[in-house]
Structure prediction request, 118 residues.
Amino acid sequence: MASDLILHVKKEYFDEILSGKKLFEYRRRSPYWKKRLRKKTFSAIQICSGYPKKGDKDRIIHLKWLGFLEETIVHPHFGKRKTSVFSIFVHEHDFKSEYSFYFDCFRCSKCGYTIYEF
Ligand SMILES: [Zn+2]
Prediction:
């Protein structure tokens, strides 16, 4: 059985995820995270504010596992240079249908992630 992916974040990021302001958690595409994330599936994600005690509902958010994107981004957390990261979805997509001549297209109104159905 798949287990939950547990991510520990600073309180400021935890609050942003809780309020829906932060849509992704970024992890450097290091050997550790490649091994941890690629070709893996999880039952859910738990976002922890620091290292709470088990069952501390105020400091743990439970989210659906929706996977991640592999991207190169500039984020203050990683300094000023472009960094290869896993952008893990930490929100529930809000897909809206968009017209396209050749295929159905659904775009998340929050993060812009788009899926196509041919
Ligand atoms: Zn989204």
